[in-house]
Amino acid sequence: LRVGIAYTRGRAIMPRLIPAFQREYPNVEVTLREGTNDAIQKALLNGGIDLAIAAYPKSPPDIELADYYTEHIVLCLADSLLSQCRFDLDAHRSEIAEGDLHSLRGCPFVLGSAADVGGRIGRELLRTSGVSPVSKATSENVETLLALCVQGVGACFCPENLLQTALSPEQLAQLHILPLCPGASYPICFAHLKRSYPWSVLSEFIRIARDQIK
């Protein structure tokens, strides 16, 4: 079974999910492939993986989708960055929560790739807020962006569920983690190619995966 996961919560739960799956199906080997949302979708269509865990804004032809969970993008800012920019977070917290980021016009950012859904959401929020961000770094690796964010290099958009696995408690304590508007949330789905016959191992993997997040 070849499973592809985008940079989302799916990555964080794999250390629990794979052992749970193996207990029931010890003779099935699981090969994991990680990548951006777009790369994982292409790998499924090209036959590189059997099951994708990714964001699908709409159901493509020949792809069967099944709900998994909702991912929320948050905005992370370090204390050192706020001091550097002389930014009064409390004065702007409510408007940021509504998706209005115009007050961050002078704040540097470390941005995710436009090829990934989280990176696209962050860039779109900045665009609609009239902000041309001062980008200090861009990367497809969210952990790298978070490490830079903790050091005060720039503000970072990140899937909320990834924070606990990517950062230590000490690092988290250095960050202000701001929820954003509903438009910064998106569904994560299981996806596989439509077949004329059912493949039971896929259904069982999906069932066990859902049990791990209850």
Element layout with pairings:
Blueprint: E1 2-6, H1 9-24, E2 31-35, H2 37-45, E3 51-55, E4 63-78, H3 79-85, H4 89-97, E5 108-112, H5 117-128, E6 134-139, H6 142-150, E7 155-159, H7 163-166, H8 169-172, E8 175-179, E9 185-193, H9 200-212
Parallel strand pairs: 1-2, 1-3, 5-6, 5-7
Antiparallel strand pairs: 3-9, 4-7, 4-8, 4-9
The helix content is 25-40%
What pattern of helices and strands is seen along the backbone? EHEHEEHHEHEHEHHEEH
Task: Look at the helices and sheets and give the structural class.
Answer: alpha/beta
| Separation of the first and last Cα atoms | 23 Å
Largest sheet: 9 strands, mixed
- Average per-residue pLDDT, rounded, comes to 90
Overall geometry: elongated
Short characterization:
The chain is of the alpha/beta class and 214 residues long.
Question: What can you see in these coordinates?
Answer:
The protein has 9 helices and 9 strands. It has 214 residues and is an alpha/beta fold. Strands 1, 2, 3, 4, 5, 6, 7, 8 and 9 form a 9-stranded mixed sheet that branches. Strand 1, helix 1 (9-24) and strand 2 (31-35) form a beta-alpha-beta unit. The mean pLDDT is 90.
